[in-house]
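Hello Y.,

Per our agreement to keep a running log of every chain we model this quarter, I'm adding this entry. I've kept the format consistent with earlier entries: sequence first, then predicted structure.
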Amino acid sequence: MSDLSIVFMGTPSFATEILKKLHTEGVEIKGVITSPDRKSGRGQKVNQSDVKKYAEANGMKILQPTNLKDAEFVSELQSLQADLFVVVAFRMLPEIVWGMPPKGTINLHGSLLPNYRGAAPINWAIINGETETGVTSFFIEKEIDTGMIIEKERISIGENESAGELHDRMMVLGADVVYSTIQKIASGNIQPVDQDDLVGAEMNPAPKIFKQDCKIDFSNDVQTVHNFCRGLSPYPASWCTLYNKDKNESKTYKLFASEKTGIDAVNHSAIKSTEEGLLFPCADNYLLVKEIQMEGKRKMNFKDFLAGNPIKSLSIIEE
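Predicted structure for the entry above:
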């Protein structure tokens, strides 16, 4: 690696894997910017970001601004005199920040841009039934996810793969792509591509997903429901409302680890069970579910769930 120096910006585990790769490969990291510590839970325990934990353990300079436009933060960032900023899973940056370094600011996005611009590209790719996605490194510009593309790498999506599983594979691929991108910028060996030149490419949005967006519609075919459930697993998680006739109560249930079946769905509200899992009826066939979580309870495999919940008493409520 040449003398090019960076400031790294990120917060979750996805970003930590990239930071670890760059540090291990000997990239000069002048500072790490991550989210402020937050209190959460009943005991209001202070939680640090995954990126901060790694940076602290490895003696890196850490900045945790609440306001990215704050004059004191901007001044301290300038004083680091980094050649390049690297952003992975962080907040939207103001121009005074991303326009600061002489070599620019790069971002890693979890899709093949310009397809799936937005906050949840991994989830939406699976929900929409894609069989392939990828990661893209690009220069940050004023409009989100629209900058000049530097490098892309593709990755296949398994037919039963969840968003969490794909996330973990893309994290490793993303680390390699970011490192490769930095090497190219350091050597001057880049030929950025304008996303406007790719307007003929498919353009699906990837907006942020909220709880109300995660309700399962069992009136869809089993393939659509399967894609929806695995695309939201393990987080934020697809959900449905089930009625327990023995207890005369309705509760919310999250579904995980699904597979489609070729079994005709006879009764379109009753849930069944097999030795393989729980069967939820869709418009055509049953969806096989192997993990489930009732509101207020822990996630459990279907066998543990059946031990305390007679399946014949449960039915789907479509509102």
